[in-house]
Task: structure prediction
Amino acid sequence: MNELWSLSAQQVSSRVRNGDFTIEDYVFQLLERINAIDDKIKAFITVNDDALETARKIDTKIKRQETIGPLAGVAVGVKDNICTKNIRTTCASKLLHEYKPPFDATVISRLKERDAIIIGKLNLDEFAMGSTTEFGSFGPTHNPWDPNYVVGGSSGGSAASVAASECTVSLGSDTGGSIRCPASFCSVVGFKPTYGSVSRYGLISYSNSLEQIGPIARTVSDIVMMMNAISGHDENDNTTHFQKMYEFSDASDLKKPVRFGLVKELIEGSDPVISRLVYSSMDLLSSAGFKWEEISLNSIDYSLASYYTIAMAEASSNLARYDNLRYGFDCQPEGYEWNSYFSTIRNNFGDEVKKRIMIGSHVLLSGYYSKYYLKAQKIRSILRQEVKKLFKYIDILISPTMPVLPFRLGEGIDNPMKRYLIDANTVIANLIGIPAISIPTGFNDKLPIGVQLMADEMQDQLLLSVSKIYERIAGVRRKPDFI
Amino acid sequence: MTGIVRIGVEIHCQLTGLNSKLFCKCRGDYRNDLPNRNVCPICTGQPGTMPLLNNKAIDYSCMIALALGCTIPSEMGFYRKNYFYPDLPKNYQITQYDSGGIGSVGSNGKLEFGKEYARIRRIQLEEDPGRLIYEGGDMDTSFYTLVDYNRAGTALVEIVTEPDFKDAATVRAFLNKLTSILEHLGVCNTKLEGSVRCDANISIDNGKRVEIKNVGSFREVEKALNFEIIRQESLSSRNIEIKSETRHWDNERKVTKQSRAKEEEQDYKYFLEPDIPIVLLDKSYLNSIQQTMPELPDKRRTRFVEEYHLSDHVSQVLINNKEMADFFESAVRIYSSPKEIANWLVSDLMSYIGVSKTDETSLTDLKIGPRHIAELAKLVDENSISRHTAKSMLNRILRTGEMPSQLVGQFDSSKIIDEKILTKAIEDTFDSERAAVIDASSNPSVINFLLGKVLKLTKGRADPQIALSLIMDKLNKN
Ligand SMILES: [Zn+2]
Result:
């Protein structure tokens, strides 16, 4: 019964079904592991006290030969901006440190219905605003490959916990790369599905028009398993697609030849170490019989500006509700005039959040609206048209997930522009709403490098099938060697 | 001296006909709840919640837009209006706005009322905020304020007119017509407290615009405007400049007063609500709304004239108050005597529901129903009781709810049995109906004709039995 924690979701689910081990044993091992190593990683904000109890309940069902859900035994870590009923959901913000949501996010209830176990809540940048998981009120998460390095973000806890095998799989949210960036920095798989394919009900909004919930796992097969559980129309989210529940196949057979397009601008803008690795994996694709070509995306230069303008504008409005009147932390409003109470409360936001609220409010002011916000939306639609045109003859766009290697914690923290630039490769998928995935591709010494694959809207199945092939070709099998 | 007055109004009408709020499943009717009971995660703005658009609210707002002759866009969107206020759970209001081709549910409409009309600038669907309850009565005298979110998120339709009104009475006439339309559509029970609210803006001689807010009911609007016209005219007659400002109506003292806090020009930072997809209002949808829409007041008036042969005036009076028009039609269904019933309603019942006294009394508060009026009309038609008797009966029925037929015996005492009075009436009739009197000896049915004339002369109060025997006596003597 050693090292159960290293199993994939697929392995766990089939082996608990066969009675190889109990879910209680498995969850207990994970909890012990979290206890032992999370001090160094700090992926978890909250560990779910009920996890063992739930595990025992499902074990009983197995013993009684009752039907069990497809995710029985799978221990899911959840980014702490996804609402979990009666488990505090903090967004790594002082304003929500005490907040216990009265309801489960749709993804959470779908996981529970399928007998998955919510093992805990995972660290992030405050309100998901960041690319390193350094900007939360609980402090930074450390990279399992080297704790002195950043883990990426904002779903840093979600990627680190999966990489360090503290949970089977996890959920993150991706507004401009927040799933793919930490997946790349931690050498795990991170998937951002087509906008509208996974319900956002219960995801605490940062930028509604850009973000999606998605899974992080150690294998593409586990991603497929999670997507089968969480995707599909939700009556609580008017922006979900009106399709029946998705059914993704784990097979890697392709119905027709797949053409890859390597995005020239993104490879040129990357660290040469990363470019070299991506080119060598293109060679591997070639030898596996795939055709690829370099393609160009002209509007890419403006996409980052467009992304940050839209994200901050929406954020400034989304975060207005945190005034501590209806929920929040202990701070009596008595004796305050309401304006001064609101500002006292809202002074508890971290600096990064305050900055984004202020910029976001600014670009929406009537005097600046057309200069910034409207222009950002125009760029968004131009980019969309350009990419849509590419997808007429290219099936998969390929690029490095991140233009840089993981860097040291705190490095360049006084140069926010430089920090924003590292999202250049990932924001495209969010601006357009297309699916994108980051897959481990190799290492530079001990630091992971990921490759990003993108497909057209609603082509999630194609993207996942290709990802399985790519995963096999890239053949990255290393695990973090600490502990 | 009277200058050119220009008044525009902005009406907020709650869609009380809806079962649920605009973006969640909480009840639309919040009026009988303890504070903060009719709430859920969505309407209290809990993190992670998303607005779920109530499709019935779209139907209703389209009905209003159609009824007011508005242009309806093929694509309609919702916007966030961002401002901080403790009654706003999200610190933004989801409303509509016109930007980049994604407009609100209606614009450029026109409503005729009587011989006048007003242009409708726009109609938008939005959510109502919660309610602030000042412990000391109002903001100036309160140490603390309580917030009740029961109302938060209920559906409102905002109707904005162009400044087309020249006096307060015209505004009142417009509001009456609008009320009748809203009632006929079944979208809003305008009698519920706070279900319709009206703000107004007013300028004289193209001067500065003054906004009047906090007007509690449509009836108060007329008073507030009249006060404001006099105030502004007296200022300009003394050459005092009228400031562009917002004034609040003080319902106690019946004056408008300057708002305590200077309301600065707010920048609401509008942008499209990303969580509500664009709503497509295609032709076939609008056609189906148009076809299934309840009958509107103007059409109903025409029908009353054609179907019941009522005068235009009587039809209009009935239809101005939908309850009254419905009452009329129910009574006619029981006893088909439209003119008689309409008369009872317009000249008698109307005074009891006090359109001119208190707006609050409604027909449903009275003990009288269509059955009563139908029966009353029938009794009079059949000459079983005189109209005079019937009127006395109505007075009593209003209090007791008894059926008129049960009262006939008790009210007989009011019949004329005095032979002297009856003989005088018969003599007068014989004088004016000489030909009939001669015919009577050869044709007995003429006797009934003479009796009818006597009854008419006594306004139905003659006791038919006694009158008949007196007529026979007199014919025999002749
Ligand atoms: Zn609600």
In short: The pocket of zinc ion is lined by residues B 21, 24, 26, 39-40, 42-43, 153 (CB under 6 Å).
